[in-house]
Amino acid sequence: MEPVAGLHGEQSYAGSTWTARLRIDPALLEREAEQAQLKQAMAEIGEGQPAVVVVTGRPGFGHNALLRWAGRLAEKRSVRVLRATGSLTERDLRNGAVIQLLSQLGPEAEGPLRVLRGPPEPDGLPGLRELLHTVRRRPTLVTVEDAQWLDPDSRRWLQALVRRMSAGVPLALLVGRTGVDRHGPDWLAGTSAAGRLTRHLLVPGLSPRAVATLAGTIFGAPCDEAFAAAAAEASYGSPAILHAALHGLADAGQRPTAADVPQLRTVMTSIIGDRCARALRGLTDESIAVLRALAVAGDLLDFTRICHLAGVRTAHESRLRSALQTAGFTVPDGPFERIHLPVARARVLEDTPVAERAGLYARAARLVYRSGAADEDVARLLLHAPPIGEPWAVQTLYGSFGAAARRSEFARAATWLNRALEEPQRPEQRARIGLDLASAEAVAAPVASDRRLAAVVKSPGDGETWSHLRVRALDMGLARGDDSWGRCVAAEALETAQGRERDDLIALYWYAVRCRPEVRDVPAPGVPALPEHPLAPAQAGIRAGQLATLGQHRERAAELARRALEAGSSVPVMPRLVAVRALWFTDAAAEAEGHLDALVAELRRGHSRAPLARALVLSADLHLRGGRVDAAQRAIDSAERALPAVAWHPYAAPHLMAVRCVIAMESGRHDEARALTAAPTPPDTETSVHWPLLLFIRARVAADEGRWAEAVELFKESGRWLVRRQWPNPAVLPWRSLAALACLRLGDLKQARRLIDEELTLARRWGAPSAVSLAELCARALDRPGTAASTTVPIGPNHLAHAWALADLTTEEATKGDRVAAARLLTELSDHRVTRTSSRLAARVRSLADRLEPTADPEVSILDREWAVLSPAERQTAELACGGLGNRQIAEQLSVSRRTVELRLSSTYKKLRVASREELRSRYRLMEGT
Which of 9-23, 113-127, 879-893 bottoms out in mean pLDDT, i.e. has the lowest? Predict the structure, then answer.
């Protein structure tokens, strides 16, 4: 490569720096199109024709290097080359570029040079006539690098030169300038000859392919595709940045491999940042002020408002935009001006004094708020601003919190509320923000959330508002599951509580007590006992739960549960959830689930993460008990979106784990169920109120796998916990029935009978038809006296347990050899709707059908083999259609769209080779034998 003649001062831009030294240009990569245009201009000179070429590129993209390449090409062709360079440090020096050009003409330009260098201001255009005179004798190429820095007199002189370029003048003018638009701002646009003569070239960044070639040359080794792509992206294709970064890495012994990409990004970020800092020193105070405003709010405010934000009101906007674009900081975007590089924006903000930066953010927040921007856009500015002291600031931050919470972006939601707490406001408003912040923190910082809630509970404020806030804070803390925390905080708060607040705190205290593994009827000092017949709705809900778990006074439990639920949102969440569960156990399932749905909707509106998650898990639990596996899956997924599993307290997590496991089992995902039950549990999980449920599910998994001895021990361990806690009601968990069936498999008939007799006694004492019918159905497998033979019809809402008891009874009858009785039971089981929602139960039905098929009564309803080609969803939809339901009714029952129902039926028609719903019904009746 040939060195470029001449020394130049430092050229500082946001994208590149050319330090004063002899410069050797590297090879030009991916510049073939531009070089072809420049060769054409050289050819035109040889033909005696003039040409003007303007080469534009971002700082560091090599537009000046193209001019130097053209100069070397011209010299090889014996064309005279005159070179001039604009300079940031000499932009106020009059006729600087003209003096550079004339200095290369020789003796003919001595007179004009004396005029230009003399003290009086020169008149006219010294040297222009002399230059044109020499050009007619000798073809000439004039190159002007960095034309954006030319002084006004040099620009006028060059414009005059272009106006005089006509046919027969063998002169080419090549102009290199920094910018992003090939057509402007163009100081040649005002010349009459410019449009006819000028070519505009825009230099692009390098592609990853070119970067790989460059890296291979510098490192002397092949370059990884990942490294080349990362380098092109991080440098924005700038050859100057790439050369500096790649040489630096090569000197440090790095290689162009994917493993070195992090180091590459670090080096490039540093290079760009340093060059931005140097470029800032070349801007005027007005330009710097505008650039700082752009760094703060350039994505939200148009350039006119940015100038207003910066306090610049006298300067011409076009001049400011041109200066920032020329320096390589910004790119135009309609009425907006955007900072091109994120690194540049960060460096501009770093360079801004702290107080000035904070003030800019505060003023920008006001401007953006008044312009009607989205809450989160304003909130991002408020995050870096000092307290505003105006109501709109808190309202905006609250709106942003709600938006982030709906997207489950809990960390961001907490950030907005933390900033809201910095604003001046009333203590009760601050406490309300603290509650919402604790809800958001429950996901990522649960310990901090508990501390914040405890602080609200202990707040000394008076009045109904404060009472409500303290009760809500305790309720939220208990929803996360830490009942030990709840007991202590509730007992302390009760020392000063009065009226309705005291009633609610008493209820929440006893809720926390009922969640412990040991009975504690003696309350803490200062805490009254829970009344036998409470009038306060929250206490009524807790008392209903006590009666339901004890299995006593069913009608009174239902009455108390209704009292709690009908009071609505005035009652804390956790007592209402206890009341829902108690009411469901009395067999008022539809009423209980209606109240639960209303509570879930209320919690969704209030962004209460932990209470919502607990309500959704209970909803999934009740859906499962009712045999609605798909609905249970949706509810449990929603629960984990509200509160991810990692954020659940060890005391609450077993409920989530157990429900997840049952859903996996009933959906036929046995491996997943086994993995869930075998997964390690968090510390202290064994003391959770939900621990016996998890043991119960583990026992069911063991029974499914034929590990009967292990299943018996797990069922009994679950039962021991419930007995110790004095929760004997089989409606809570029918552990005795399933343990009895497991004992029967092991041949321990004596223990099986003892367990089933206890179950029957307790179920009859509670009196709920579902509990009694389930116990009697299980007892029939042991031929216990006093059990009716017609209990196979499902009574009450516990359809899943009833269907499985019927399946187990069918299996026992088949094992004992009574195939006719087994076939009759299988008919009833096949008609059970749970067999169409539980894949696991459907598999048991098919297995029993295959087992009984050789001698089964032809009247028995056994699924036809053709029916097995349908997916579970198609089979479920088809059976409902055969039952006379329309598409809309099927969609509502299955919680899917009508379009989904239509697609499932269409697929069913194809698989069964039927053409209409009537034909489908006929096929179904034929298969059912009716």
Answer: 9-23
105 pLDDT exceeds 60?
yes
Say how many C-beta atoms besides its own lie within 10 A of residue 749's C-beta: 12
The alpha carbon of residue 671 and the mean position of all alpha carbons in its chain are separated, in whole angstroms, by 29
pLDDT at 693 over 60: yes
Q: Residue 664 corresponds to which amino acid?
A: A
Which among 761, 771, 486, 733 has a CA at the least distance from the CA of 725? Answer: 733
767 dihedral zone (left: phi>0; alpha: psi -120 to 50; beta): left
Q: What SS3 class is residue 916?
A: coil
Residue-wise DSSP of 109-144: GHHHHHHHHSSSPPPS-TTHHHHHHHHHHS-EEEEE
What are the tokens at 343?
Answer: 């690194």
Q: Are 139 and 46 in contact (CB under 8 A)?
A: yes
Report the candidate in 642, 583, 645 with the shortest Cα–Cα distance to residue 608: 642
DSSP 677-735: HHSPPPTTGGGSTTHHHHHHHHHHHHHHTT-HHHHHHHHHHHHHHHHHTT---TTT--H
Taking 50 as the threshold, does the pLDDT of residue 684 lie above it?
yes
Task: Look over the chain and give the mean of its residue pLDDT values, rounded to a whole number.
Answer: 85
Burial (CB count <10 Å: 0-12, 13-18, 19+), residue 581? buried
Listed in sequence order, the residues at least 6 apart from 556 whose beta carbon sits closer than 8 Å to its beta carbon are 533, 547
Answer for the pair 697, 662: CB distance below 8 angstroms, yes or no: yes
Dist. CA 681–CA 42, nearest whole Å: 79
Residues 468 and 457: their CA atoms lie apart, in Å, by 10
Higher pLDDT, 647 or 790: 647
Question: CA-CA distances (angstroms) from residue 589 to 558, 584, 592, 805?
Answer: 11, 4, 5, 20
For residues 55 and 201, the answer to whether their CB atoms sit within 8 Å is yes
Question: Six-digit token pair at 706?
Answer: 């034929």
pLDDT above 50 (res 8): no
Closest CA to 505 of 481, 478, 532: 478
- Prior bond of 185 cis (ω within 30°): yes
* pLDDT per residue as tens digits for the range 208-222: 999 999 999 999 999
How far CA 600 is from CA of 19, 248, 605, 615, 623, in Å, comes to 67, 59, 9, 6, 14
**Would you say 29 and 213 are in contact if contact means Cβ atoms under 8 Å apart?**
yes
Q: Please, what sign has the CA dihedral across residues 323, 329, 331, 334? A: negative
Distances 364 to 285, 298, 305, 378, 383 between C-alpha atoms, Å: 19, 10, 9, 8, 12
Q: Kindly report the pTM of this predicted structure.
A: 0.69
Kindly state the tokens that stand for 320: 């400011």
